[in-house]
Design a protein that fits this description.
Elements: H1 9-18, H2 25-34, H3 48-56, E1 64-70, E2 77-82, E3 88-89, E4 92-96, E5 99-103, E6 107-109, E7 124-127, H4 130-144, E8 148-153, H5 163-174, E9 186-190, H6 194-203, E10 208-212, H7 218-224, H8 227-247, E11 251-257, H9 265-275, E12 280-286, H10 301-310, E13 315-317, H11 331-338, H12 343-349
Parallel strand pairs: 5-8, 8-9, 9-10, 10-11, 11-12, 12-13
Antiparallel strand pairs: 1-2, 2-3, 2-4, 4-5, 6-7
Bound molecules: S-adenosyl-L-homocysteine (SAH).
S-adenosyl-L-homocysteine binds next to strand 9 and strand 11.
């Protein structure tokens, strides 16, 4: 079967030609997909024969809402969408003065095993296709009725562990015939897969790379993030330097503040040693407590931030959105997986 939803208009055009259809149908199909349709019946300007062909390819496979939670505090919306195979993904729509941003997943589950993260508890189930990653943006915009201008690839999964599909997604979401979201409005967050960072650097895209650092020293980082054990912090910073040299884009470092683990004055000093004089930004994240983990949020966030700023390293503290609905990544899917009455759990076990 052809994965039509992961195709560019040019690829759809070629597919249409193979089906004996005129070339202009390719763009039409892409535009229909971009509207988040739930059946080929809605593609009213396409001939019936072509719609049947799309159905035969399993073409539409829309996302359906399994659960939806809206924050009373700030309007954040967390979705639990069900994929056609029964797996679930949970984009979060956040409302900012500069526009609406959606946080999306790149995989079902995650293989990286970070000690503080809810997404990795059940391991990686599978990669999402480019079309599935894109559909999170399209269906969230459609269901909420809110125009989306920014995307963060910071939901479940490690985007650079699903490189080809994520790269293709970037092409699709950026396409003028579709969502047309500019690269500068997209952030990609990675736990630090060095080969992936180097590959991305070669592409010279203008997106923002966020690196989940969480500790400046190998001992702490390797304990928190298994991905660090093979490569180490030195090699990660070297890759980040290469990335900046190639793209000229400032790198953002994510740092979840964990009580007594990575929040000491010594670690702030080490981090400043690493970043002083470089073009970087540190995003300090108050740790979200994950039930499966004994790690606790730090009470030293402000002091840590001051210490970095004194050394000239820009650091901000991430504002928590949707705290009344548990909107942090992995939480809703975890709940659905745990809840024995949940349909999604039954389906995920199939
Ligand atoms: N795999 C990618 C993207 C997904 S995680 C990555 O590692 O960057 C998105 C961000 O949330 C990462 O910075 C991750 O480290 C952070 N995160 C995960 N669990 C968290 C928690 N319990 N509290 C705070 N931040 C967390």
């Amino acid at each position: 079967m052809a994965d039509l939803k992961s195709m560019t208009p040019a690829e759809l055009t070629a597919w249409c030609k193979d089906q004996g259809q005129p070339a202009f149908r390719g763009k039409q199909i892409f535009q229909w997909f971009s509207r988040g349709i739930s059946s080929t019946e809605e593609m009213t300007d396409l001939p019936k024969a072509l719609r049947t062909k799309i159905d035969r390819e399993g073409g539409i496979s829309p996302l359906t809402v399994e659960r939806k939670q809206v924050s009373k505090l700030d309007g954040t919306i967390q979705y639990l969408w069900r994929l056609p195979d029964g797996n679930c993904i949970e984009p979060v729509l956040m409302r900012y003065p500069h526009g609406n941003s959606v946080c999306i997943s790149s995989q079902v589950g995650c293989a990286m095993g970070c000690a503080f993260c809810a997404s990795t508890v059940g391991g990686r189930v599978r990669n999402l296709t480019a079309g599935e990653i894109l559909d999170q943006v399209i269906f969230t915009q459609k269901d909420s009725g809110l125009p989306i201008s920014n995307i963060v690839l910071m939901g479940i999964g490690e985007p650079l562990d699903n490189y080809d599909h994520v790269r293709k997604f970037l092409t699709l979401v950026n396409h003028p015939d579709g969502m047309n979201i500019g690269m500068r409005h997209i952030s990609l967050s990675t736990c630090g897969l060095i080969k992936g960072i180097d590959r991305l650097a070669e592409e010279g895209l203008q997106l923002t790379l966020s690196v989940s650092l969480h500790a400046p020293d190998d001992e702490t980082r390797s304990a928190l993030m298994p991905v660090n054990r093979a490569t180490g912090v030195d090699a990660l910073f070297a890759a980040c330097r290469r990335y900046f040299e190639k793209t000229g884009r400032r790198i953002s470092y994510e740092y979840a503040m964990i009580d007594g683990v990575n929040d000491t004055p010594r670690q702030a000093a080490l981090l400043a040693d690493r970043l002083e004089g470089t073009v970087a930004h540190v995003n300090l994240i108050p740790l979200n407590h994950v039930e499966e983990s004994s790690l606790q949020p730090s009470s030293r966030v402000a002091a840590f931030q001051r210490q970095l700023e004194k050394r000239g390293v820009t650091a901000t503290v991430r504002r928590r959105l949707g705290s009344d609905i548990d909107a942090s990544c992995g939480q809703l899917r975890r709940k659905a997986l745990r809840d024995p009455r949940s349909d999604s759990r039954r389906r995920e076990r199939r």
